[in-house]
Amino acid sequence: MRCGRQVSPLRDHFQKSSPSLNGRGNGRILKLPDLTKRFTAGLRNSGSPGVRRRLRPDPFRISHLMACLMTTSLITGGSGFIGSHLAEHLLRRGDDVIVVDDLSTGCQNNLSGIMEHPRLDFIEGSIDDVALVAELLGRSDRVFHLAAAVGVALIAKEPIQTIERNVYPTQLILDRLGSMAQRGRQVPCFIASTSEVYGKNPKDTWSEEDDLVFGATTRPRWSYGVSKAIDEFLALAYVKQQGLPIVVGRFFNVVGPRQTGAYGMVLPRFVEAALAGRPLVVHDDGHQVRCFAHVDDIIQAVVKLIETPAASGRVYNIGSDQPVSILDLAKRVIERTNSSSEIQFQSYSDAYDQSFEDIRRRVPDLQRIHDAIGFRPTMNLNDIIDSVANQYASETP
Ligand SMILES: NC(=O)c1ccc[n+]([C@@H]2O[C@H](COP(=O)([O-])OP(=O)(O)OC[C@H]3O[C@@H](n4cnc5c(N)ncnc54)[C@H](O)[C@@H]3O)[C@@H](O)[C@H]2O)c1
Predict the structure, then answer these.
(1) How distant, in Å, are the alpha carbons of 2, 106, 184 from that of 386?
(2) Taking the mean position of all CA atoms in its chain, how far away is CA 70?
(3) Active-site residue set
(4) Nearest CA to 208 among 367, 76, 317, 360?
(5) Ligand 1 site: residues with CB under 6 angstroms?
(6) Of 12, 300, 301, 317, which has fewest CB within 10 angstroms of its CB?
(7) How far is the CA of 149 from the centre of ligand 1 (A)?
(8) What 3 state SS string does 184-208 have?
């Protein structure tokens, strides 16, 4: 079963009065023999190429290195689309993982493959809860802050929630990280931002030092980009004033299995419609341009950024730089899924409301992230569509 409801019932979730702290997972069981094996395997592979050395394990060194390997990663919004993939990836690597999520747009089912994992703690709660944030940061060696109000349809409908959800919890987390740093404990943090911060900048390709060009405040869709820009300003201010190790990533259309189309995401909407033989609804004339990157590529970049000290204190575009128009995307989805669906066009005012303004072209310059961590996306559009279609097909009875 996939996550995602229609936009209107979200209000119920947003208005939950007091968030519950509901921890699941067995949490603290460490698999020491696994770690020892991993460490000694690492030793065997080290040294000059082709030279195999027999090493006598040094118990002190092993326990020290095992302590280094036992990282506890906190993922806010870890039951969401990107967060759940990140949680799986970190568990596979041997991290302890704490997921905190209020299940507003994410859902527990996204974690079904790892819910019983002994190194996962799942906490149902909101990161606007001061005590909860303090407790979770106190247990973490690094933080991936992904929780936010996400999705064009949701943002157009719920602008108050967008602004509150995206600004206040980020400030709370940064403030707490600042206090911890003052007491001598620096915890690296990745902050998820978005290509929406560029607004409607008319450049063909956007690079990190470009201007942010937003529309009028009477148009609620800009509240998402502006709220994320405030997060970036805050993060960079904490870097400057308090020396916190924070890195900001601006995601450009991340897609893959488990993404829900319920909040306006285009690829899951198209794939679902194509597989069901329904029309694919393209907004406006379909000539607006986007770049789609697979979540597996994005996760690699996020982890590498937080683990690269030289990347700290900077903002990075993260995504694919291969442009495709939404109309061509719809055609490609129909072709890859062998669908007989038709394409229908819908105006923005019918899809959202009269005030809606879109961005015609959104293509990142990836030079900075390539220079910092050697990042290049590995999956092309066909691979990506197939991966999403396979997920839907496998869920159809
Ligand atoms: N998917 C994309 O293409 C994309 C593009 C740009 C930016 N981003 C950013 O990446 C991050 C993850 O996005 P996603 O696509 O996985 O969306 P998502 O909606 O699947 O994930 C967000 C998660 O945050 C949770 N959440 C929201 N408010 C919370 C709160 N106060 N406390 C606890 N949990 C809360 C939601 O329940 C959800 O599980 C977001 O910050 C988003 O702005 C995503």
Answers:
(1) 17, 23, 48
(2) 23
(3) 224
(4) 317
(5) 76-77, 79-83, 100-106, 126-128, 146-148, 150, 165, 169, 192, 194, 251, 253-254
(6) 12
(7) 6
(8) CCCCCEEEEEEHHHHECCCCCCECC
Nearest CA owner, ligand 1 atom 1: 254
Here the tokens at position 288 are 């607006």
pLDDT in tens for each of the 397 residues of the chain?
A: 456 533 332 223 333 333 333 444 433 323 333 333 333 333 333 333 333 333 444 544 554 454 456 799 999 999 999 999 999 999 999 999 999 999 999 999 999 999 999 999 999 999 999 999 999 999 999 999 999 998 777 787 888 988 999 999 999 999 999 999 999 999 999 999 999 999 999 999 999 999 999 999 988 889 999 999 999 999 999 999 999 999 999 999 999 999 987 776 899 999 999 999 999 999 999 999 999 999 999 999 999 999 999 999 999 999 999 999 999 999 999 999 999 999 999 998 888 877 788 899 999 999 999 999 999 999 999 999 999 999 887 876 6
Domain ranges of the chain: 148-395
- pTM for the structure as a whole: 0.85
Given the CA of residue 126, which atom of ligand 1 is nearest to it?
32
Superfamily of domain 148-395: NAD(P)-binding Rossmann-like Domain (3.40.50.720)
In which residue are the tokens 């095992």 written?
66
The CA 314 to ligand 1 mean position distance, Å, reads: 21
d(CA 295, CA 301): 10
* Nearest C-alpha neighbor of 97 from the set 108, 388, 111, 106: 111
**Ligand 1 atom nearest 147 alpha carbon:** 24
Q: Looking at residue 340, what DSSP letter applies?
A: -
Ligand 1 centroid distance, CA of 105 (Å)? 7
Q: How far apart are CA 319 and CA 164, in angstroms?
A: 26
> Which residue has a Cα nearest atom 41 of ligand 1?
146
